Structures are given as structure tokens and as C-alpha cells.
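Quick one: co-fold with iron/sulfur cluster.
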Amino acid sequence: MTQLAIIRCEKNQDKCPMTNCFRCLRGKKEGFAGYDDCMLIGVFTCRCPGDVAINLSKILKAKEAEAIHFCTCTFAQKTDKGWFVEDGGFCEDIDDIIGKVHKETGLPCVKGTAHLPKNYTPKTWT
Ligand code: SF4
Ligand code: SF4
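Sure, here it is.
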């Protein structure tokens, strides 16, 4: 059983209650398809300019998170035709933030949760 945590973006916190993130994790789909078995052990909200994500991740590690996923809406946008990465999501710096979190915690970090864009394979920092 892999214990997972999710970091979301504050820009979406009043619009989305993470329903599809939770559904996909529970069903081991989309960004969570690679796990035989997994459970959610925590969720934190990143705040701009993003430095806080490092300390939040350290807390998640202390709570025994074994990997951290970052929400799809941080790097992809919803259109009439589905989700696309081309126009970006809520965060211009998400790769940089994920890289720092991985470096500081040593935890695997995965860019993606729910409704992955077509032809997108979750980028993972390991
Ligand atoms: S990835 Fe989707 S379900 Fe998860 S917080 Fe963003 S918009 Fe909501
Ligand atoms: S730094 Fe990026 S992920 Fe964090 S709150 Fe701001 S836009 Fe969202």
C-alpha cells in the first residue's frame, strides 16, 4: 500500500473540491494508474510564489507520505475538447516547484492527478 499526498494550487481552491483527484486516486486511474494499491494520507494547498510547498512537503513526509502528486490543473487547462497542456495551467513554475520539493524531501514527485491531457504521461521526479 503506497501512502500518497496531494498538493493543490491556491488559485483553484475555491472552485474545485478535488473531486476527480480523489476519485482517480481511489480508483487507481489517470495519474494514479501506476499503483497496485494506494491510499491518501494528506492534502496541502500551495500558496504563491510556491516556496511554501517545500515545508508542506516536509510535513507530508513526516506524516509518512511515500510520494507526492501535484494537481493536473497546475499545468493543464480545460477546454471544450478536453484538457490540454499547451496553454498551461494555474502555475508557470510548477516544474521548478516540484523539482525543489523532490530535492528537499527525496520523495518521488508526480506531475498529475486526474483528467490527464491526451497523450500526456505523468512526469515523475525520482
Ligand atoms: S486536478 Fe482537477 S479535480 Fe484536481 S483540483 Fe485540479 S481541477 Fe480539481
Ligand atoms: S506557486 Fe504555483 S502551484 Fe503554488 S499557489 Fe502559486 S500558482 Fe499555484
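If it helps, The chain has one domain: 2-125.
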